[in-house]
Write a structure and sequence with these properties.
Elements: H1 8-11, E1 13-18, H2 23-33, E2 39-44, H3 50-59, E3 63-66, H4 74-91, H5 94-97, H6 105-120, E4 125-128, H7 135-145, E5 154-158, H8 167-172, E6 173-174, E7 186-187, H9 189-192, E8 197-201, H10 208-220, E9 222-223, E10 232-233, E11 237-242, H11 246-251, H12 257-263, E12 266-269, H13 280-291, E13 297-300, H14 302-310, H15 316-330, E14 335-337, H16 360-371, H17 376-394, H18 399-406, H19 410-421
Parallel strand pairs: 1-2, 2-3, 4-11, 4-12, 5-8, 8-11, 13-14
Antiparallel strand pairs: 6-7, 9-10
The structure holds adenosine-5'-triphosphate.
Length: 422
């Protein structure tokens, strides 16, 4: 048995073999799981009670495995490690990181989940999250990485724009003469998506009668065009997105439970930007490079960085992107973007917003932690961890300057980093 997690950091994957549930093994697994880059597989002895295995999962293990043979076969361990490696390679590929920006734990976990679903399953995916959190981007990624390597198109239907009168035609297509104005036959979304992906955006806004229309085609892959007698067949990956809580809509009687179960083969949740504030500067720099491609502009100066991370973004990443666009458009000449580039109506009334860092979202995060029973030590560590990461990011990974900024010695900063990594 090797409960020492020190090697996890190098490999990215840790395999812990243990005979029984031991506290130090549990602690090692728990500490390692705090780093999103580490995945831990616990191999336990055959016949151990299931509850032990759940305890390891609760501590943060990515998987647990009971010995089936004596000595334990390496094949099962190998299969899992190979899967994790492939998923990590995909998640870290240029294809993914070039368009989906983020290094926070919640974002990385989402991207891993999404690429695994795309590459290893064909089931329907429901993406849930606030407006502007990247749901459409995720759907495009799933289409690109689809396991079937399909040649078909990605067809996007915005459910907020589907009218009751035209819904049949939009979804199923129509025959010539099916209704007044149907002067020519037309393919609907289910035909166009054949062999590809159908993305139903804002599915939570679909009126109840239209929800009923979709049941058969989603379940059986067959439908009739408006005005036709024969069935047509179609096969596609279904992705739906919503910013509504569909379980609550079902309880309120505004969303059909049977449709929910057909669309929610997998459920992915995009985090709000306030839940991944450590991604703000990364995203802002990505957008700035996009808008100022040829201008010679050198990013944001220090005060603008502080402004960006102290602001609130009710519209999430979309809000941030638009703000960066405004900054870039106002900026003239080489050199970094400065506070003068912040539009007048967007400047904080009280001047420098630093004093307001204990904002509502800060209180909400702490409130959630306390509600979930997270201890004071872990809350403090998480805050420290975040502060260190942000300082290093601001200082382009210079430990000396990050330590100066945080008012500690470089050695203290390194020690804290090391302590939190385990
Ligand atoms: N992780 C990300 N990396 C880069 N850009 C992002 C990311 N997340 C969102 N964006 C950008 O933010 C904007 C909104 O993203 P998107 O349309 O995918 O959000 P959404 O959740 O589908 O929004 P809505 O619910 O309002 O339709 C887009 O310009 C997108 O490029």
């Amino acid at each position: 048995m090797d409960p020492d997690p020190a090697g996890f950091g190098q490999s990215g994957y840790g395999v812990v073999v243990c005979q029984r549930l031991e506290k130090d093994v549990l602690t090692a697994v728990h500490n390692a799981s705090k780093d999103a880059r580490l995945l831990v597989l616990v191999v336990g002895s055959r016949g151990k009670p299931c509850s032990d295995m759940w305890t390891f999962m609760a501590a943060g293990a990515s998987d647990v495995l009971l010995w089936q043979t004596d000595p334990p076969s390496g094949e099962q361990v190998q299969a899992r490690l190979q899967r994790w490696k492939h998923v990590d390679e995909l998640a870290g590929s240029e294809l993914v990181t070039g368009s989906l920006v983020g290094a926070s734990q919640s974002w990385r976990a989402l991207v891993r989940q999404v690429v695994e679903i795309a590459a290893y399953s064909q089931g329907p995916v429901l993406i849930v999250g606030e407006s502007g959190t990247g749901k459409e981007l995720i759907s495009r990624l799933i289409h690109t990485l689809d396991a079937r390597r399909s040649k078909g198109d990605l067809v996007i239907v915005d459910c907020t724009t589907i009218s009751m009168e035209l819904s049949g035609s939009e979804f199923f297509g129509h025959e010539r003469g099916a209704f007044t104005g149907a002067v020519a036959p037309r393919d609907g979304a289910f035909t166009l998506a054949n062999g590809g992906t159908l993305f139903l955006d804002e599915i939570g806004e679909l009126p109840l009668p239209l929800q009923a229309q979709l049941l058969r085609v989603i379940q059986e892959g067959k439908f009739k065009r408006v005005g036709a007698n024969n069935w047509q067949h179609t096969q596609f990956r279904l992705i739906a997105a919503t910013n509504r809580n569909l379980e609550a809509s079902i309880a309120a009687g505004t969303f059909r439970a049977d449709l929910y179960h057909r669309i929610a083969g997998w459920v992915c949740r995009t985090p709000s930007l306030r839940d991944r504030m450590d991604d703000v500067l990364l995203l802002a720099r990505h957008f700035q490079a996009e808008f100022n491609r040829d201008s010679g502009c050198e990013g944001f100066d220090e005060t603008v960085c502080q402004y960006l991370i102290s602001r609130e973004y009710p519209g999430n990443v979309r809000d941030l992107r638009r703000l960066v666009a405004r900054l870039c458009h106002r900026h003239a000449g080489p050199g970094p973007i400065t506070l003068g580039d912040v539009p007048v109506d967007e400047r904080p009334e009280s001047g420098c917003p630093i004093s307001s860092w204990r904002s509502e979202s800060f209180e909400q995060a702490i409130r959630r932690a306390v509600d979930q029973g997270v201890g004071l030590k872990e809350i403090g560590q998480a805050a420290e961890d975040l502060a260190i990461r942000i300082a290093l990011e601001h200082e382009h990974r210079s430990v000396q300057r990050a330590a100066d900024r945080l008012g500690v010695t470089p050695r203290t900063l390194q020690l804290r980093r090391a302590a939190h990594a385990h």
